Amino acid sequence: MTEEMIIAGFGGQGVLSMGKILAYSGIMQDQEVSWMPSYGPEMRGGTANVVVIVSDERISSPVLTVFDTAIILNQQSMDKFEKSVKPGGVLIYDPNGITHHPLRTDINIFQIEGARLASEMGNAKIFNMVVLGAYLKVKPVVKIENVIKGLKKSLPERYHKLIPMNEDALNMGMKNVVKYN
User: Fold this and answer.
1) Nearest-CA neighbor of 91 among 75, 78, 109?
2) Nearest CA-CA partner of 70 in 42, 40, 45, 98
3) Residue ranges of domains in the chain
4) Phi first, then psi: what are they for 180, rounded to 5°?
5) What are phi and psi of 87, to 5 degrees?
6) Three-state DSSP class for 160?
C-alpha cells in the first residue's frame, strides 16, 4: 500500500501540522513516510501545502505531480490541485470559501464542513483534525490510535491536555464526511 497525497490551503489552517501528524502516524505503524512542506513567506494567510507519502515499501522520491488524494482547504488550492488527482483518486474539501466546486467525474469527491464543525465544537484550531478525521474515514491508511501517538509526538508536551479534544475532532470528521459526486 502506498498513499501519495497533498494537503493544501492557507497558512494558519493547520495544513503542515496535519501532514506531520499523518507522517508520525505512519512511523508508528512501521511504514515508510515522506513529509515535504511548501509555503509562502507570509506564514498566516499565505498559501501552504504539504506532500505526504505513507507506504509499506521504500519511497523513491518525495517529489510528486499527481496524487492519490488531495485535501483542499481553499479556492486557490482547488484551482491548482484538482487536476492533479489521479483518475479514480479522492478529493476531500471544505466548502467554506470555495466558490468553484470540483467538477471532475473521474475521481471520488467528498465534503467535510470542518470550519463549521470546529466552530460548533468551540475551537476553530481543531479544524485540521476534523478534516483529518474525514480523510481517515474515507481512506483509513493509519489507525486512530497511531494518530493519537502522532499528536503526542508533534505537539509540545504543554499541549498534551488538548489531545482528547483533538480526538473528539477526529471522530467528528469521521461522522460528518459526505460524498459529493
Assistant:
1) 109
2) 98
3) 2-179
4) -95, -35
5) -55, 135
6) helix
What is the predicted pLDDT for the residue at 42?
53
pTM higher than 0.85, yes or no?
yes
What does the radius of gyration of the chain's CA atoms come to, in whole angstroms? Answer: 15
The string of pLDDT tens digits covering residues 71-117 is: 999 999 999 999 999 999 999 999 998 999 999 999 999 999 999 99
- Asked if 177 contacts 92 with a C-beta cutoff of 8 angstroms, the reply is yes
**Looking at domain 2-179, does it have CATH number 1.50.10.20?**
no
Q: 14 and 114 in contact (C-beta within 8 Å)?
A: no
Q: How is residue 14 written as a grid cell?
A: 493547520
CB 6 within 8 A of CB 49: yes
> What are the grid coordinates assigned to 55, written together?
507506504
- CB of 91 within 8 A of CB of 70? yes
Measure the CA–CA gap between 81 and 154, rounded to whole angstroms.
26
Mean pLDDT of the residues in the chain: 92
